[in-house]
Amino acid sequence: MANMTESPALPSVTGSAWRGVRYFCTVRAGGVSTGPYASMNLGRRTQDDSAHVLENRRRLRAEVPAEPFWLNQVHGVQVADADREGETLAADASVTSAPGRVLAIMTADCLPVVIADVQGRTVGVAHAGWRGLAEGVLEQTLSRLQAKVDGDAQWQAWVGPGISQPHFEVGADVYEAFVGRDSRTGVFFAPRAADKKWLADLPGLARHRLQAAGVARVELSGCCTYGEPERFFSYRRRPDSGRMVTVAWLTGK
Q: What keywords tag this UniProt record (predicted)?
C-alpha cells in the first residue's frame, strides 16, 4: 500500500524504501491552482493558468535535486535515456543511471510505474495507460534498464496511484488488446454482460506484466485516482482535470 509522506515537504504518496532510490507521486494538495485544477496541477497541457502551473512546478523543483527530465507523453512505448544528450523527449518512459538526475511522469488515471534494480544502480519511470501497457511500455523500460547494469540484477517496481477496477469500464478493444495476446490476463477483467463491457484491473495487469518480465518485487499503491477526488486528479472523472507527477532519482548512496 502507498504511504502518505511529508518528507519531501510537498504532500505526496510513496512506497517502500529502496536502497539508493527516492521516488514519490504528488497529490492534489500543496499548490496554488484553483477550480478543477486545485491545487497542485503540474500539467502544462491543461487550461490552467500558466503562472499557477509554473509556481506548482517551482514547488516541486524545491523538493528534488535537479530540474525534472520532462517528457512529451504520447501513450506509446518509446523510452528516453536521460543520460544521453539530445535524447528524444517524445516518450512515455525514461531511464537513468546518473545519481541526482530526476525522472518525471505525469498522470491522471493512467499508472505511473517506477522500476529499479535492488542495488540502486539504475532507475526508470513509465507512463502506463492501457495502450502503452498492452503494447509493452513496461517491458521496454525494463529492457533499457537491464542494458545499463553489468551481470544479473534483481528488479523491483512500484505501481503508483491510478484508476481502479470498479471505475475503469472498457470495451472489447481493450479486452482483446490484453487477452488476445495472453489468455492469462482474462482474470483481470470483470464482465458486464448487460452491455458487453468489462471492468479492467489496470494495476493488476501492470503487476502481471512486470512479474512475467522478471520483476520479482512489485508493490501496488492501492490508491484510486477516480475514487479519491479529494486526493487525486482523474481525467475520466473530469476531463478538465489537473495532473500529478511521479518523480524518481538515484541518490548515489
A: Hydrolase, Metal-binding, Transferase, Zinc
Question: Residue 154 to residues 114, 146, 174, 211, 218: CA-CA distances in angstroms?
Answer: 14, 10, 31, 12, 12
**Residue 116, helix vs strand vs coil:** strand
Beta strands in 86-221 (DSSP E): 93-96, 103-107, 111-117, 123-128, 155-159, 169-170, 189-192, 197-200, 217-220
Domain 3-250 is in which class? Answer: alpha beta
In 3D space, the residue among 134, 124, 150 whose CA is nearest the CA of residue 215 turns out to be 124
Strands of 169-170's sheet in order across: 169-170, 197-200, 189-192
Low-confidence winner among 3-12, 42-51, 205-214 (lowest mean pLDDT): 3-12
**Alpha helices (runs of H) in 136-251, residue ranges in sequence order:** 137-146, 172-179, 202-212
Dump the DSSP string for 217-245: EEEE---BTTT-TTT---TTT-SS---EE
Element (H, E) at 81: strand 79-81
Grid-cell match 503540474, residue found: 42
Residue with cell 488476445: 180
pTM as predicted: 0.96
CB distance 129 to 110 below 8 Å: yes
**Residues 154-167: tens digit of each pLDDT:** 999 999 999 999 99
